[in-house]
Amino acid sequence: MIYKRVSLASSPVLLALLWQFRDEPLAVCTCVSALAFLATWCMVPAATATFKRVGLSGTDMSKPTRPVLAESMGMVAATIYLVATFLFIPAQFRGWWMSSDSQSAHHSHMFPFGRLGEYLSALLSLQSMVFLGFADDVFDLRWRFKLILPTIASIPVLIVYYVGYGVTHVVVPVFMRSSLGTNTVELGFLYYIYIGLMAVFCTNAINILAGINGVEVGQSIVIALSIIIKDIANINNANPEAEYYHLFSLYLLLPFVAVSCALYYWNVYPAHVFVGDTYCYFAGMAFAVCGILGHFSKTLLLLFIPQIFNFVYSAPQIFGLVPCPRHRLPKMVVECPLPPNIVSKVRHEADLASASISESGSEGMVGDTGTEQSLTGLAGLHSTISSAMQSFTKARASKSNISSATRKIQATGKQARGASVRPTAYMVASRTSLENARPLGLTIIRIYERFGIANVERNTQGTMVSVNNLTLLNLVLVQCHRLTESQLNNRILLIQVLNSLLAFFIRYRLSRVFYF
User: What does DSSP say about strands 424-428 and 483-484: parallel, antiparallel, or unpaired?
Assistant: First the structure.
């Protein structure tokens, strides 16, 4: 296996670099992240059989063959992430405990206990969320628990934020300062409610925008890379305190991107494993703790605009205003086209047969039972062959002409059967019935239809009968009609990348109009 050979060859090099740059925490974090990537890359396929044996598996409903894949493999990536971040703890404070006056600094309370507390609280919240996500994969928890559990898991971060930083005011836009008479507004306890709800939203937002190979991990990688780019771009232009928070974000997200890229390799189309709710909760909490303790929660929400739109768009189904099926995955449609050379040859033979029949007149009826059976078998090969055969069997022709034409088309049919033609699976928007929809839900559907973001089916009386399931995945398919699973995943990731560019423009260009 290539991943094993690459891992064995790369590990000694990374360990040597780790030792060489042991005094540079960011370099150490980069090396540890690379080792975490290799570990995840190798451990995911190794753990597949074990997960299947204990019943953690599921059917890939978006494939014609319906393969059974190992589920909850996000647990492997999350575990390796936690191990990597635990091992990195000494590297952050190596400059302190290796110094000659470390003992005196310790006794004089100069050790950065606050920074250690922030890092440990982030890991505690992440570890709690991984455990709760795995419990959801095993026990299939109800939605009310999915809202409560992230709130509980975020308590360590909220406590540390309150004790260590405690800023709860927001800056007022320029055009409102004269009327309010202040540059900032103190929110107090409401600010903690806001960041607590953000933790709940981030963990569930990744989980809602899911359902096809690679989309959960892919969108998380794009968001994480966007935050990393932001941190690197600002780390040298910031004061020491702001520089620390940029480094804090990098220390958490570099290992996250590493394990996610390794997991994406096995989860992207055609997937070998499923990531499960464990990864979705783990990724969402990673972003939440970075945004809260890194003090860029508003920038984080800008990066989550596609997820916010998906949540608002899905709200009628989430809150029961429109019937919501258990799975709102796009629908799979399978096609098995013939190769172009076979299709053109069949058409040519059918044209020759038709011309021969027309010249022969009405000398006889089709009466050869073997010929009729062969024509019936060939009719299922392709719609072109089917139409040609229907015209052929309905015509009046001589038995000799029929036998000659049939032999030619049978030979073509054998070539078609021998050709290596694979069925193509396309994704189309799945639908839900509006029979039991509430009046408010129907009103929202009409508004969606007015704005062109819903495909509504009506009966002859004009009554709404069904609508596409209200997710961003189905909306993309409504606009594009049909896509392969890989193409649909690429469209979602493109939307996420474009949104990151928009978020940077709003944060670093447009915000100056309102806040400076």
Answer: antiparallel
Overall pTM surpassing 0.85 (yes/no): no
Contacts of 275 (CB under 8 A, 6+ apart): 72, 73, 74, 77, 216, 217, 263, 267
Count of all residues that appear for the chain in the document: 516
Cα distances from 126 to residues 123, 246, 268, in angstroms, run 5, 19, 24
In angstroms, rounded to a whole number, what is the distance separating the alpha carbons of residues 42 and 262?
Answer: 9
Pairing mode, strands 464-468 and 431-433 = antiparallel
Q: Which residues have a Cβ under 8 Å from the Cβ of 99 and sit 6 or more positions away? A: 105
Q: CA angle, corner 276, sides to 82 and 31, nearest 5?
A: 30
DSSP-based three-state secondary structure for 422: coil
**Neighbour-count burial of 423, counting CB atoms closer than 10 A to its CB (0-12 exposed, 13-18 middle, 19+ buried):** exposed
Tokens at 281, concatenated: 């909760």
Within 10 A of 140 (CB to CB), how many other CB atoms are there?
8
**Are 70 and 52 within 8 A, CB to CB?**
yes
- Nearest 5 degrees, angle CA 456-CA 462-CA 467? 15
Rounded CA separation 243/156 (Å): 23
HSE-up (13 A, CA, CB side) for residue 192: 15
Q: Where are the alpha helices (DSSP H) in 304-382?
A: 305-318, 340-360, 369-379
CA 149 – CA 125 distance, rounded (Å):
11
> Over the stretch 186-241, which tens digit does the pLDDT of each residue have?
888 898 999 889 999 999 999 899 989 999 999 999 999 999 999 998 888 768 88
- Chain CA centroid to CA 48, Å: 20
**The pLDDT of residue 241:** 83
Q: CA-based Rg of the chain, rounded to a whole angstrom? A: 30
Other CB atoms within 10 Å distance of the CB of residue 496 = 23
| Residue 294 near residue 249, CB atoms below 8 Å | yes
Verify cis geometry, omega within 30 degrees of 0, for the bond prior to 270.
yes
Distances (CA, A) of 338 to 96, 232, 334, 418, 423: 70, 52, 13, 11, 10
pLDDT confidence of residue 373: 44
Angle at 106 between CA 103 and CA 109, to 5 degrees: 150
**Residue 17 in this model has a pLDDT that exceeds 60:** yes
* Residues 24-43 as b or e (16 or more Cβ within 10 Å = b): ebbebbbbbbbbbbbbbbbb
The DSSP annotation for 182-202 comes to -SEEE-THHHHHHHHHHHHHH
The pLDDT, as a whole number, for residue 421 is 55
Can you read off the two tokens belonging to residue 406?
A: 């049939």
Is 291:283 a contact under the CB 8 Å cutoff?
no
The single-letter DSSP state of residue 273 is B
Beta bridge partners of 83: none
- pLDDT tens digits, residue range 107-155? 445 778 888 899 999 999 999 999 988 988 888 877 777 788 888 889 9
